[in-house]
Every structure is written in structure tokens, then in C-alpha cells.
Amino acid sequence: MAKENKNLTSVLDNKDESALFDIANNFSIRHHNPNQKTNYDPAIWYSWMFHFYLATYHAAIRLLMKKEKESA
User: Fold this and answer.
1) What is the DSSP string of 11-31?
2) What is the pLDDT of residues 30-53, one digit of tens each?
3) What is the CA radius of gyration of the chain?
4) What SS3 class is residue 68?
5) In this model, does residue 18 exceed pLDDT 90?
6) What does the pLDDT read at residue 9?
7) Nearest Cα residue to 8 out of 67, 71, 72
């Protein structure tokens, strides 16, 4: 059996992958540099960001499992 690519890039287009990192890189939740957006209430938006990324994780796992099943 051929070696499977289990990276998210194997089931997402580059544009989709880029969109996933937009929030993490452009809002002040990673890196904390002056170019990031900071004009938001973290008490409200961090919860939304957490659930957004949790749902994204679940979708990514399902996509990878679907691809693996289809290639079996």
C-alpha cells in the first residue's frame, strides 16, 4: 500500500488552508506583534475563536479519515 499523506494540505486547497491561519496570524492571539489587530474584546472573541478552531479540527479529522477510507 502506498504511503498516505496525512497532512491537512492533502484535503484542502491552499486558499482554504490560508484562511484557517488568517485569524491566528492577524489577531493578537499568536506572536503578539504590533501589526496584529487588537481592537476586540478577548473575553468575547477568544471563546468564538476556540470553538471555530475546535470545529475546524473536527472537520479536518473527518476529511482525512474520508480520504483514507476512499483510498483503501
Assistant:
1) TS-HHHHHHHHHHHHHBTTSS
2) 777 788 888 889 899 889 988 988
3) 16
4) helix
5) no
6) 81
7) 67
How many Å apart are CA 72 and CA 19, to the nearest integer? Answer: 30
The amino acid sitting at 34 is: P
Residue 23 is placed in which grid cell?
485569524
Q: Are 25 and 17 in contact (CB under 8 A)?
A: no
* pTM for the structure as a whole: 0.68
Please state the length of the chain. 72
Return the amino acid letter for 28: S
Which cell numbers in the block locate residue 11? 484535503
Q: Is the dihedral of CA 66, 51, 31, 37 positive or negative?
A: positive
What is the reported pLDDT for 5? 53
Q: CA-to-CA distance for 21 and 38, rounded, in angstroms?
A: 16
Cα 61 to its chain centre, rounded Å, is 11
Amino acid letter for position 53: Y
